[in-house]
Amino acid sequence: MALNSTSPSASGDDIQLTVAHHGNPVTFSFSRNATLNDLSERVSAQLSIPPPNQKFLVAKHGLQKPPFKDPTLPLSGLASSKITLMGSTTAEVSSLNSSIAAASAPRRPGPIKPATPARNRDYRKTQEEAQYTFHTLRSLPHLPNPERSLRFLERLRDDAGIKAAMRAHKFSVPLLTEMDPAMHTTHESRTLGLNRNQGEVIELRLRTDAYDGYRDYKTIRKTLCHELAHNVWGPHDRNFWNLCKQIEKEVDRDDWRAGGRSVGNEEYYEPAEEELYDHGGWAGGEFVLGRGGETVVSSAGGDVPAGSLSRRDVLARAAEERMKREKQAKEHPDGGGSPAA
């Protein structure tokens, strides 16, 4: 904002002098014989900037401040020069001094807080946990309470023992998902887990057969150890079982959070002896992600072509396949005509 001032003796012979202060132009009127000292007095009177606070940066004349080396320097020679005024008003200086005094005033010492020990974050461990983990978790949206299944999978992923074993063996699994009990249940057995293509996808049977409850956490975690061992060994040979037992021991040893506690009023299920962990490291079948986040999985006893089929079609094919196996099991109780599990 520009401030204009005209001296009482202004006439046609007066000169106009513009000074920039805080980025704003301020225009003064002076007589032809006015000097630099007159400019200082006018700034002090109109802008409340006392001479000790004044500094004038004048083009081609450099820095000028009271007391001036040449106080009689005529302003007529500066009318066309760029002049910048640097200085604080009396009010600004007073406010600054008050702030300094308040900051410097002695304060009452408050209660001494106990020192908090510094936490040393293990960045290497954090980086490994981000690399060696289950990168995607997915529940089945067509089953009841999919959000509860997702929390179950999150609990497995964040289990201290599982995380330690994943880091130790450098296991990185793209997808951990729940298994649909209806698609992996036969008259003779119930599959508890599947490992596809050496850890590309791991499926776990979380629910009871009636879909209204969940199995024992530690049983499912033990199944997960079994499936992780299939990341290295496919057949159930001595190498596989040695690694499986090693992973189980490591998970139990590093389970400092005591994972496996039952939470809430959920129904848990202990598997019977005739149930199976899996059918070995499985590299066959299909795993298709349907629209809207639906997970469509092939049947264990015979592949269900997914492709363009809807979820209802896939489930119907799976039910037909299951009924066929049950019928064959009744007609051939000796197992001679039943399909291989």
How do the helices and strands line up, and which of them pair or pack?
Layout: E1 3-5, E2 15-21, E3 24-30, H1 36-47, E4 55-58, E5 62-64, E6 83-86, H2 90-104, H3 123-131, E7 137-138, H4 146-158, H5 160-169, E8 175-178, E9 193-196, E10 201-204, H6 217-229, H7 238-253, E11 287-289, E12 295-297, H8 311-331
Helix pairs in contact: 3-5, 5-7, 6-7
| Integer tally of domains | 2
* Major beta sheet, strand line-up: 1-3-2-6-4-5
Shape: rod-shaped
Main beta-sheet strand count, sense and barrel state: 6 strands, mixed
Query: Can you count the beta strands?
Result: 12
Number of helices: 8
What distance lies between the first and last C-alpha atoms, to the nearest angstrom?
90 Å
Return residue spans where pLDDT drops below 50 for at least 5 consecutive residues: 1-12, 259-274, 284-312, 335-341
Please identify the structural class as seen in this structure. Answer: alpha/beta
What sequence of helices (H) and strands (E) makes up the elements? EEEHEEEHHEHHEEEHHEEH
Q: Estimate the helix proportion, in percent.
A: 25-40%
What's the alpha carbon Rg, rounded to whole Å? 42 Å
The fraction of residues assigned to DSSP E strands is 5-15%
On the 0 to 100 scale, the average pLDDT is 74
